[in-house]
Structure formats: structure tokens, C-alpha cells
Amino acid sequence: MRQGARNLITDIAGLRVGNAQDHGLRSGVTVLTAAAPLRAGVHVMGGAPGTRETELLAPDRLVQEVDALVLSGGSAFGLDAASGVMEGLRKMGRGFAVGELRVPIVPAAILFDLANGGAKDWNVNPYAALGRIALEGAAEDFALGTAGAGAGATTARLKGGLGSASCVLENGVTVGALVAVNPVGCVTMGQGPHFWAAPFEMGAEFGGYGTGQAGHVAVTKFSREATTLAIVATDAALDQAQLTRMAIAAHDGIARAIVPAHTPFDGDLVFAVSTAKGAVPDMQCLLEIGHAAASCLARAIARGVYEAWEMPGDLLPSWQACFGQAG
Q1: In CATH, what number does 2-318 get?
Q2: In terms of DSSP H, where are the helices of the chain?
């Protein structure tokens, strides 16, 4: 297994990611899309999810593909980001055909960032506009850290953020992860710089500090400021049932990188998508894809925190301010 060329989910050919954020609001939206519809599955393990159209992704449903996936801040208000994405896709002529009409399929999930110090006194819900901007800016390269759905994210002790990672298996299959890191729990060990995900790091993608001493984990974050939202992806030709299993396996990456994970106050959710451009995998390949998805997601979570940057008025410090060259 080796790192992808960009070390982003867009190392899977055809995928694009767009971010939009309002730093005064301390919130934002991230959109994953492609030129053609994507097969998709989903699995939820957190106790407090906020979602839109995820029921469509069950293997027995009529609709088998999506036009985009949305990760958003804003708690339930952020679900409106999918409306902006739908409108943009409609104007592109995208969507599920219903007679002469097309209905864009845009499942979405939200995290809670309403108590992070940002200006939340808006009169018009800003998330539809942010969703549309994120869709219009979707590209192969995109910002990590304090960007998109990670713009206002926090962890128990440090700022959260948007992370991504990728890998290429020995058989040529590419796997990637994209995540907005906003958990109740901790991403680092004790009071030091070491990430729980350190055993899975490739190169020095989040500092190269190696493993540290775990120590006691004291969770002090306000219980409703939570949720880790993720997308894992592959070019292997997985169907919806196999993608659902991939999403389930990828949850191990959350548990490897965040302590504690999947709490009653987190809405932890993983989408899984396939471009279906590669070969149909055998059982051994399916096992390897699930393991790679979990490893990529653990790495992406650490990168999201590692890449976050300082903003005026932050309620929590960034990893870089505490432990980086600027710290």
C-alpha cells in the first residue's frame, strides 16, 4: 500500500471536491461530486446524527446512484446546503430521470458548530448559498484544515478541521477518505502532539511524531458540539451492498483516530462511494478495500486537525499553534 499522488480523495479519478466557508459565521460546506453519478452507501454509528436522503442509499431502494454528497456545519440549518447543491446540479441538467424531469440526488449530513463563537445572528439561512458555491468550486485540489465543513470544527482540546488522505493498493485499486472532524473526543494523546492515528501515518503527513504515551482521556467538550462526518471512496466497481460494508469497515478509522468515538452525542456517519471505473473485486480485494478505507480515514482525521489554522476569536487553539513551528 502506498500514498496516492495528491494524498486526497480526488486521487480517485473523476472525483471533485469543493469547499465554501464563512469565517465570520465559523462554518462551511464541503461537496463531493463527479462528472457522472456515483454509486453510494452509508452507515451511521453516532448517537446524534443529522441527515438528508440517507435512506435512499440502502441497497434495496429504487435510486442506486447519487449526483453529489454534502457535508455541512450548521446543525439542522446546514441541511439546507443540499438545496443549493441540488439547484446547481439541476441547472447542469443532472439528476435522476423522472419522465422529462430530472431530480438531483444529494444526500447530506451535518455537524454541530453553533456554539463555536461565530456570528449566528443571520436572518436568512446561509447554507444553501454556501452549498451552491462549494459545488461551483469543486476541483481535484482543495484546501484542508479550517475550510469547508471543517471551518468551525473543534475537538475536545484543539480545533478540528477538514482532512483527506488516499492510498493505492498493490492490485492498483485506489481508496480515499474525506472527513470533517468535530468530535466530542480527542484526536491527540494526553497534552502532547501525538495523534491516536500515528501508527497509520504515511511519511510525515501529520507531523511524523510517531506514537506517544496515551495517558488519561478527559472529555471536556460541551456535549452537543459534536460529530465526525466522512466519505470514503474507491474506483473498484462496488455495488451498494458492498459500499455499505465499506462504510461500516471505515468506522474503525474513526475509532482508531478519536477517543472516545461514536458517543451518544456524536452523529458519526460514513458515506462510501464508487466511480465503478475499475474491476469488480473478489472477496480478498473487498477485505483489503475495507481495511484501506479505515486506515485512510484515520489518517484523514489526523490531517484535518494537523492542517487547521488560527483565526481571531478561536475558542480553542490549533494543533499548529500548540506544537508546530509557529507554536
Answers
A1: 3.60.70.12
A2: 81-91, 127-136, 240-257, 283-306, 319-323
